[in-house]
Each structure stands twice: as C-alpha cells, then as structure tokens.
Amino acid sequence: MLSTSTIHRPAPTAFRSYNAQHEYARQVEADYPGLRVAHDVTFEDVWQLLLDSGFLYPEKVARLEPVLPDIQQTVRQLLLANGNLMATAVMRGAKSLEAHLGSLRWCEQTWIVQHLAALPMSARRMSASAQVALGFTQYGQLRPDFVWGKMYFRPNNLWPTRVFGGYAKRVTDPATSDLRTSHYLVASTIGSAIQSPTGVEVRVGAEEDRAMIEEWFTARGRMVEVQANQLQAGCRGVENISRAYEEAGLLRRRESLIAQRHGRVAGFALLEIASLGMNFSELTNSFTVHVLDDTDDAARHALADAARRRYAALGRMQCIALEEGDNLSAFTAAGFSKVKDYTCWTFHREHLYGMEQFFRALFGARKKDAA
Predict the structure, then answer these.
(1) H or E stretch including 267?
(2) 20 to 30 A Cα–Cα from 161, which one of 181, 193, 266, 318?
(3) 157-188: b or e for each residue (b if 16 or more CB lie within 10 Å)?
(4) Rounded Cα–Cα distance for residues 264 and 243 (Å)
(5) In whole angstroms, what is the distance from residue 340 CA to residue 154 CA?
C-alpha cells in the first residue's frame, strides 16, 4: 500500500535516453514475439488499422475531415518522438497491423493510454489485443518515468470496460487510484455569441491562483488528480513537458480561468490545449469546470462560456467540456450539448503488476472459452 505522503513529485526532467528506451522495448519484445514497442510503426499503419477495426467509423471520419491534415501532422511528429512523447505497442501481421495501443506522455511522469484498436476476431489471431495490453503493462513497469497512468474509455464499450474497468473496480486505495465518469459535451465556437450571466466576472488565472486550485482538489480528497495532473502549487505545472512538445513542433499547455463575484473567487476552469489529433476524440483539448459552491450555476455557466470563447480565439471550431455532474443546465445555457460519456481511470504505477496478472487470468480464461 502506498500512502499519500510517499508519492513523490515529478522530477524537473524525466526523459529517458534513447538507449534506455530501446532496452525497455527489447525486453518486452523478447517476451512477446511479433510485438513491436515504441518503434516500427507509421501514420499510414495506424490510420489503416483504425479504419479496418471500426475504431474510426464513417461519421467520426467525416467529423475529422476538416482538420485531417493537422491530425496527420501531429501523429507523424509524435511518431518521430516514439518512446519519448508517445509510446506505441503494435502486433504486426504479414501485411498490416493487427492491433495497436498508443500511450501519450501528458505530464512529465503521467501517460494517457489511448487509441486501442484491433482487427475483428475473424481477421486476426485471438491474442493480438491481449498481447498489446500485456505488453503495455510490462513496458510501464520497466520505465521508471511511468509513475501515473490515465485510461479513457467509453463505459458502453464492452472490451475496455471489462478489461481496464474490471481491474480498476478492484482497486480501493484512494491515494493511488481514481475512477470517474464524465459527460462529454460539445459546443461550436462559430456563430452568435452566448450571453454570459451578469454578476460574474471571469479573468485569466495567475500564479497566485495555483494554491487555491490545489486546495479545491485536496479538500475533496482528490489527491490522485493533484499528483497525476501536476496541480501542486509548488511545481511548475506542465511547463517542462510543454517545452518538450514545443521542441517536437507540437503544442501542449494548460490554462486556467477564474470566476469572481464581488471580487471573491467563485470557481475556476482548467483548459487543456494541445495540437489537434493527439487524441482523436480531442480529450487533450477539453476543459473542466470547478465551483466552490456546487449550486452556483451562474459561475459554472460563465466559466463554460469563457472557455468556449478562449478555444474560439485559438482557432478551434469546437469546444469540449468534461462534466461529472448530472445537472447540465449551465452548459446547455452556454451552448453545449451532451454527445457521450467517458470513464477515466487514473492509477499509480504500483498497480501495473496486478493489472498484468489480472489480464493474464482474464485472457487465459477467454482463450479457453473460445477453444
């Protein structure tokens, strides 16, 4: 068991050398013949698999079409930094990829596990999706800079809900695991402006607001988010990782907006801003709203409206909010509509070994059932 006091803060720089990354990959590949980790994959490989697997369905492809050149450029740049800013695990067949799992370094020592796809059962070996998942757990255990992981999945998607969600529900330590589901809300940034509520002013967050933001999460027992998302007042947020992305020709930063009423803070919003295509659902370009009084819909509305205008100023055609509460009236008033739900599991590296054993048992039983 890991207590909150023993979870260490990220080091100022946490990037491994090329030789170290190569050795981690070599060890995983030795255990899983046919698996390739953090190399040997192209944008064309990944895109074709996502299409063939149904991960990218026609309606989603149509939504991505206007920004597809930006997405292609982002993914190509990330693949050039494979093993550093991202890490892929792929099973390659005779002619194409059979399965793919992509992980994105979101903070210095936090990785988002995303874009898991595999060919249909009839077109691939039974073990392809299992092997990329198992390869990921082993790779994470080998890398000392994988301290926190985040997994996003649709709660109605049976495979990740059973595999990742199944293990997440077994973990009961609030100091090392956080499982929560949010509504995924979308608003267009194009068109007539939405009138913001009167009596609430919104300003850009400043250095002195960091302690208040950390305290909001700490007071609610949400220390996993503080650690994994680098929300500690005393650390530099995501500045170091932002520089690494900038060196790779990409954008990744966080901004905050502060709502005030009569000069007193009423709430805040955290805006994640990244190059388009780091995540195909643009979870890496989403914001969350946090109010001091849960009933303060005016502050919630004002912050959602301000976030929408900020993403518009950045040239984004749409704005995405992630909201846990079921009262969405403030977001609806700000022009947002619910599209779907996402579950996010945030976990400490100490759970990777248990996850690996759970996967082995689950996939072993699944293989016997299919025999």
Answers:
(1) strand 264-274
(2) 318
(3) eeebbebbbebbeebebebbbbbeebbbbbbe
(4) 33
(5) 8
- Between 61-65, 125-129, 180-184, 216-220, the lowest mean confidence (pLDDT) is in 125-129
Q: How many CA atoms lie within 13 A of 13 on its CB side?
A: 5
Query: Cβ atoms within 10 A of the Cβ of 242, count?
Result: 18
Q: From CA 307, how far away is CA 289, in angstroms rounded?
A: 9
Structure-block tokens of residue 194? 């939405």
Q: Would you say 317 and 282 are in contact if contact means Cβ atoms under 8 Å apart?
A: no
pLDDT at 291 over 90: yes
How do 252-261 and 264-274 pair as beta strands?
A: antiparallel
Rg, C-alpha atoms of the chain: 21
Cα–Cα distances (Å) from 247 to 23, 226, 240, 244, 344, in that order, read 24, 26, 11, 5, 29
Name the pLDDT band for 197 (thresholds 50, 70, 90): confident
What's the per-residue H, E or C state across 199-214? Answer: CCEEEECCHHHHHHHH
Q: Across 302-365, where does the E strand assignment appear? A: 318-323, 337-348
Q: What's the whole-model pTM score?
A: 0.90
Backbone angles phi, psi at 280, to 5 degrees: -75, -15
| Integer CA distances (angstroms), 155 to 61, 65, 71, 110, in order | 21, 26, 25, 22
Nearest to 97 by CA among 32, 49, 61: 49
Burial of 226 (C-beta count, 10 Å sphere; 0-12/13-18/19+)? buried
Q: Which domains does the chain have, with CATH numbers?
A: 16-172+350-370 (3.40.630.30), 185-344 (3.40.630)
Q: Are strands 148-153 and 110-118 parallel, antiparallel or unpaired?
A: parallel
- Report pLDDT digits (tens) over 136-149: 999 999 999 999 99
- From the CB of residue 199, how many other CB atoms can be counted at a distance below 10 Å? 11
Instruction: Count the neighbouring beta carbons within 10 Å of the beta carbon of residue 66.
Output: 9
Positive or negative, the Cα torsion across 134, 350, 111, 21? negative
Length of the chain: 371
